[in-house]
Amino acid sequence: MAMILQGSIVGVLLLLLMLLLILLLILLACKPWRFFSSLSSPSRALKVGDLERPLVLDDANAQGQSNESTRSSDLEGACGQNEGLLHSPRMHDLVYKQRLPSASLQLNEGDSVVLNSEPIEDLSVGQTLRFLSLTERLAEVKTHVRQEDQKPNLKSDLKNDLLQDLAPKAIADQRSCLSLEVISGPSCGLRCSVQPTSASRLPLTLGRVSSDLLLKDSEVSGKHAMINWNADKNKWELVDMGSLNGTFLNSQLISHPDSGSRHRGDPVELSSGDIITLGTTSNVHVHVTSKSESQTPFGIGIASDPMAFRRGGKKLAMEDVCYYQWPLPGIPQFGVFGICDGHGGVAAAKSASKMLPEKVASILSDSLIRERVLSQCDASDVLRVAFYQTEANMNNYYEGCAATVLLVWADSNENLFAQCANVGDSACFMNVDGKQIKMTEDHRVSSYSERLRLNETGVPLRDGETRLYGLNLARMLGDKFLKQQEPRFSSEPYISEAIHINQESGAFALLASDGFWDVISLKKAAQLVTQAKERYFKEEGNISEKVANFLLSEAKTLRTKDNTSILFLEFDRKFRISCKVDS
């Protein structure tokens, strides 16, 4: 009996020892005494080595403090001024945020920095603050400071490095807004917009089932294609997801060559004005705007269609490019709107649509030139030089394009003015105070004015001759090879008079490629615009886009046989366009 009792006592003691051992291990793992030490002191010292800990920048309006204001401004100047650019879209899930300490760039080993911060709240045992890439940068700064703390210009170098490395990417991400609109097919009129910073909505899927852009088209696959933001290239990219009927970009197949494999295609960069075709009937117009373009003082509508099946079922490549920039970068009161109609391919049209706004912006960046335009209400020289520079920089020997550019600007009194330049047969007209004003000149070989110019070169056209080297245009951008063979080809633009726009008179401008003007006259176009505005006046949404699509549908009805692109500007004050981004 005694032995049984003795064995029971030993067993209980062993159990108690095991429980004590487990409790001791838990205490060692959790280290609860660290909370008592932090609560006993509202501010604590931070060693230089502590910069490696995962701290996160607070909001831009939070002000860090330090005992030495001169020393504290150095590192904070390099990072704090750009906090708005450095915030990641994923920072919303942080539970606790702590401001980085103000630290001198001349810290030596053993120096300490005091953090005057609020006591930590809502911090539970085991919680880890998110470690951002910016912290790694600060750790690199610390290491660099140790090694080179004797260099007097180190502070400014570090500031410039941070700005150059981090700011451009953040700015590009914030500025590029992608807008999609279905312009043909069963889901015509459907729209979708997204920004690179909307990480939860990327990639953007296009398809018939559970997609961001849901297309009710039997020829579209359930998950047909997707669009994602390439942060390395700062570009939007389109990828076919192994669709059955293929994905086309500007009538060029981008799907995997083996359509039966259901493999994804390679990413293809998207540009503003591109047309995505899913299957055979659903066309999606792509528009890429910057954040600065998000509000304009007038309505803007764009509509395009390659008219791919208007030639006896023959696939017709899309060679038109529509574009606009309002305002021009760094020039808030000026904007450019244009259409480039390519021939021989779309490359020349894409090059010109990129270069023309850049050249105009570069010229107007000169304050003296800008002031002269505003004071004289004339931008003829700006447009002429922009066309010359674009032609000189284009490297398209076997492709060319017609180009029409409408420059719009506002003076100090918010009066709007417009002036147009063009080569080729894409035309623009404006309606101001009830009068139709043609802003362009027809440069086809068959036009009367162009035949006069050609005859004055000393080599007159023969009777009935309507083409030069197979082209019906005598003026264009690009086509360098043809211009070397035939000196009568020209890139000299026609430039209109500047027009003052009365925003109370319902003024508007219409730019369109020759596919539209082949079947609709200027007078008929003005009547159609009036008819469309009356039809859509009481409807919600962007009426200018509805007008543009109405005009496009009329060109389809009249069976135009060429690519058709329309850019409609409504200058009435009640019209607006915005880049709406769904959260």
UniProtKB/TrEMBL annotation:
<feature type="region of interest" description="Disordered">
    <location>
        <begin position="59"/>
        <end position="79"/>
    </location>
</feature>
<feature type="domain" description="FHA">
    <location>
        <begin position="204"/>
        <end position="254"/>
    </location>
</feature>
<dbReference type="InterPro" id="IPR036457">
    <property type="entry name" value="PPM-type-like_dom_sf"/>
</dbReference>
<keyword id="KW-0464">Manganese</keyword>
<dbReference type="Pfam" id="PF00498">
    <property type="entry name" value="FHA"/>
</dbReference>
<dbReference type="InterPro" id="IPR008984">
    <property type="entry name" value="SMAD_FHA_dom_sf"/>
</dbReference>
<dbReference type="Pfam" id="PF00481">
    <property type="entry name" value="PP2C"/>
</dbReference>
<dbReference type="InterPro" id="IPR000253">
    <property type="entry name" value="FHA_dom"/>
</dbReference>
<dbReference type="InterPro" id="IPR000222">
    <property type="entry name" value="PP2C_BS"/>
</dbReference>
<keyword id="KW-0460">Magnesium</keyword>
<keyword id="KW-0479">Metal-binding</keyword>
<keyword id="KW-0904">Protein phosphatase</keyword>
<dbReference type="InterPro" id="IPR015655">
    <property type="entry name" value="PP2C"/>
</dbReference>
<keyword id="KW-0378">Hydrolase</keyword>
<dbReference type="GO" id="GO:0046872">
    <property type="term" value="F:metal ion binding"/>
</dbReference>
<protein>
    <recommendedName>
        <fullName>protein-serine/threonine phosphatase</fullName>
        <ecNumber>3.1.3.16</ecNumber>
    </recommendedName>
</protein>
<feature type="compositionally biased region" description="Polar residues">
    <location>
        <begin position="62"/>
        <end position="72"/>
    </location>
</feature>
<feature type="domain" description="PPM-type phosphatase">
    <location>
        <begin position="299"/>
        <end position="571"/>
    </location>
</feature>
<dbReference type="InterPro" id="IPR001932">
    <property type="entry name" value="PPM-type_phosphatase-like_dom"/>
</dbReference>
<dbReference type="GO" id="GO:0004722">
    <property type="term" value="F:protein serine/threonine phosphatase activity"/>
</dbReference>
